[in-house]
Design goal:
Layout lengths: L6 H12 L3 H23 L9 E2 L2 E2 L3 H17 L30 H20 L3 H5 L14 H25 L6
Antiparallel strand pairs: 1-2
Helix pairs in contact: 2-4, 2-6, 3-4, 3-6
Length: 182
Amino acid sequence: MQECPVRADIITEQLNKSHMKQSQLLAEVMDKTRERTLDCIEQLKATDMHRVFECGDVELNSAIWIIGHLSVTENWLLLRSTGGEHVKIPWARTFGMGGSRPEKDAIPALEELMGMLEEVHSRSLSHISSLTDAQLAEDNTTGFDMFGVRSKQDVIIHAIRHEGIHCGHLGWLMKLNGIKSI
């Protein structure tokens, strides 16, 4: 019985056939993940995006907080941690990991958050798609280490997962607001 090839082998074979660099594939996957995030955000715009739902005794993050958080973390993971030129975000600390929820009046307007989300994403895609395989294998530039993540490639993969996780959170917020998510 012939063994099924490992998934990474299939991906490598397809990359070789298409002449696409691994960094370009990673950028494309990140962009496709962002497309779904933007779809969720668009559908949530008709709701109170500052609303905080509770699950048991736990307060969930609001949609507006998730948008700011995605800008800040993409900037950190895909630009700073991979050696790119990061974007100066004046309200970055407001949306960092482990921070406390800001008051509604301390959160920038949705238009500003969406503009920053787009700027960071555009710069990130341009930067990561330009990386060589050798650069992807290098240690990340910030010393980021979560779940054994060390290389620039690992950080990019973590950023893709991170985006998907928060897209799922936005999907839950859609359901909680009575919006069909599929």
